Amino acid sequence: MAPVEQVLKDANIETEDIDEVILVGGSIRIPEEPSMGINPDEAVANGTAVPGGILSGAEGTADVVLVDVCSLTLGIETTDRIFTKLIPRIYALRIRTYHH
Questions:
Q1: The pLDDT of residue 84
Q2: Residue 54 and residue 44: Cα distance in Å, rounded?
Q3: Can you give the pLDDT at residue 95?
Q4: Cβ neighbours of residue 75 under 8 Å, at least 6 residues apart?
Q5: Distance in angstroms (rounded) separating the CA atoms of residues 42 and 24
Q6: What DSSP character marks residue 25?
Q7: Mean pLDDT by 10 residues, the chain (100 residues)
C-alpha cells in the first residue's frame, strides 16, 4: 500500500478525509464490491471533458482554474549517466492559454 500512502502524504490528507474511492480502467476488475453510484466509463469521459472545456474556453468555464501536476520527476540524462531533474515530482504545472 506504499503508493496509496504516498498519494495521501502528497495530498496532505488522511484516510478519514476520503469518503469514496472510484476505480476506473483496469482497476475495476479488482474483486471488491464496486460503487454503483457512477459509471467508470463516464468518470473517465468526464475527467477528460472538464480540462478540454476549460482549455477550449467553453461557456461557463471562465472562472474555473485547472491545476495539473507532474506525478513523476522528469529529467534528462547528462554527462556520466547522471539524471538531471527538470521538473520535480508533484510540481504544479503552470500553463497559460490565450483565446483570440
A1: 93
A2: 16
A3: 67
A4: 83, 84, 85, 86, 87
A5: 10
A6: G
A7: 84 87 64 71 83 85 77 89 90 70
Q: Which residue has the cell 507532474?
A: 70
| pTM > 0.85 | no
Alpha helices in the chain (DSSP H): 2-11, 40-56
Q: Could you give the 3-state DSSP secondary structure of residue 38?
A: coil
Distances in Å between the Cα of 84 and the Cα atoms of 11, 70, 78 are 25, 16, 6
Cα 94 to Cα 67: distance, rounded to the nearest angstrom: 8
Q: Give the whole-angstrom CA distance, residue 7 versus residue 2.
A: 9
Q: How many alpha carbons lie under 13 Å from residue 6 in its C-beta half-sphere?
A: 7
DSSP H/E element including 87: strand 82-87
- Cα 43 from Cα 24, distance rounded (Å): 8
Phi, psi of 81 (to 5 degrees): 60, 35
- Per-residue pLDDT at 27: 56
